[in-house]
Fold this sequence. Notes:
Layout: E1 33-37, H1 47-56, E2 61-67, H2 77-93, E3 99-102, H3 108-123, E4 127-130, H4 136-150, E5 155-158, H5 181-190, H6 216-221, H7 247-259, H8 265-268, H9 281-286, H10 291-301, H11 305-326, H12 348-359, H13 365-377, H14 382-395, H15 400-410, H16 416-427, H17 442-449, H18 454-460, H19 472-496
Parallel strand pairs: 1-2, 1-4, 2-3, 4-5
Helix pairs in contact: 3-4, 5-11, 7-10, 10-11, 11-16, 13-14, 13-18, 14-16, 15-16
Protein name: Deoxyribodipyrimidine photo-lyase type I
Family: Belongs to the DNA photolyase family.
Domain Photolyase/cryptochrome alpha/beta: 31-164
Amino acid sequence: xxxxxxxxxxxxxxxxxxxxxxxxxxxxxxxxxxxxxxxxxxxxxxxxxxxxxxxxxxxxxxxxxxxxxxxxxxxxxxxxxxxxxxxxxxxxxxxxxxxxxxxxxxxxxxxxxxxxxxxxxxxxxxxxxxxxxxxxxxxxxxxxxxxxxxxxxxxxxxxxxxxxxxxxxxxxxxxxxxxxxxxxxxxxxxxxxxxxxxxxxxxxxxxxxxxxxxxxxxxxxxxxxxxxxxxxxxxxxxxxxxxxxxxxxxxxxxxxxxxxxxxxxxxxxxxxxxxxxxxxxxxxxxxxxxxxxxxxxxxxxxxxxxxxxxxxxxxxxxxxxxxxxxxxxxxxxxxxxxxxxxxxxxxxxxxxxxxxxxxxxxxxxxxxxxxxxxxxxxxxxxxxxxxxxxxxxxxxxxxxxxxxxxxxxxxxxxxxxxxxxxxxxxxxxxxxxxxxxxxxxxxxxxxxxxxxxxxxxxxxxxxxxxxxxxxxxxxxxxxxxxxxxxxxxxxxxxxxx
Length: 497
């Protein structure tokens, strides 16, 4: 089996333990092993859990989850409630052995490190095993946890990632990261990927009394706060129709998708009026499914254009994770320097327009339906996400980060890499972004992808007819004028240098 990409700074020894190599087994131990769950809330297809079970032998694995408000910063009640339900289901699968600890809201990585090290000492473990994290904060947190454990003669071992191919592994000639999706996708398809792993036979035990874990929903649900303050008059959730959570629900969704929508995926995926997509994004984000499992199931179900298109969508998720691995600053700063020069609106009128967009009251049916679906379900169809994002950036002339924050607040699948870099893609300022002049006309998009109006009626039936808050033709011209000015500013800047 292949070694994955590793961040040598994760472990104090510099060992390459961040990638998913299992042919070198973890050292056997005569002590309990702490398994630290993060974005891998499942028991099947977990190489890290398999390795822990092999090393533990007859010794117990002690499962731990640390509620980290810093890691969930910007998430509203939808994502926290889904997480809480995932934890409840995981605890049932573990026979009640999951221990929950909560880091203080201002503590960050150092507080998590103290919790993990203290827990390992409490149960007498020398090894903490986890699946590797890849976000900028997650990588920094793992480094700090590893250093804290090493100071106490304990080790943090990280195996696998939430991706088929670990971010940072694929490189162009010369060792440079990929900047264009098509080239990344070809390399991604050529990279061998292991078959899904079976659930390990392991003995799980709490070993300690844990009063904090008596109410997982309450403990996880206290993690969110409202930011910015002027959002307080907006609909902040929770959404009334969140999906079922946990590994079993995720497997059911995958099975249903493969049996029904996948064979027509290439034809129906852009139709919000049809059940043509997988709706597995939250499962992939929280790790109730690994993309390895999804990829394997898809390949066993179909071939041809439907499979090709679905695998490409999986690979876009991995491409953006790879971009963020190399450019952590791109989470909240435009990947392309032109974004720094693109004029955006601010002030009371801009906030009024944002409020209309957020409430689904723009007068453009497809945009409004999408925004109301987000408020109702904590999810939005991908085609409509693009149209709604384009409308905010190029029709309302607002900062893409306003929209990215709103999506992250409401989306159950809210992911810093996929969400924010997709926003930059739509805004024309990301890597391999859509050309800026590709400005979605929301009326034409509705005619093409919701031709009978079923999607709009489903979410906007109670909305009174209203005038559009902006004129698309006029705002398109204004957007192109601003883009030309930004390009001129970049040319001037480069000439001055």
